[in-house]
Amino acid sequence: MGFEEAEVIRDVQAVLESAKDGYTSIYADLRDHRRTEVATISGSVVRASHRNGIPAPSHEFIVELVHAMEDRKPS
Predict the structure, then answer these.
(1) Residue 70 in contact with residue 43, Cβ under 8 Å?
(2) How far is it, in rounded angstroms, from Cα 44 to Cα 63?
């Protein structure tokens, strides 16, 4: 099963153009001093990587970084 690269690029561009002022839910949670869903999202990749002996250092870094940001005191 294939795909047309130009069509995928057009679709991605359309989403980006329609959400110029959008932001991620993780950003919104951090902004509003709430716990994020990073442990569920990227954390599941980290847990699977550990189970399967496959390094996922980028995901591990992101999880730790976001958790550190969650623990910041509001300014």
Answers:
(1) no
(2) 10
Closest residue by Cα to residue 40 from 20, 24, 63: 63
Q: What is the pLDDT of residues 5-36, one digit of tens each?
A: 999 999 999 998 998 888 889 999 999 999 99
Separation between Cα atoms, residue 52 and residue 45, nearest integer Å: 10
Both tokens of 15, joined, read: 């989403």
Amino acid at residue number 44: S
Amino acid at position 64, single letter: E
**Residue 30: how many other CB atoms lie within 10 Å:** 17
H or E element that contains 66: helix 57-70
3-state secondary structure of 41: helix
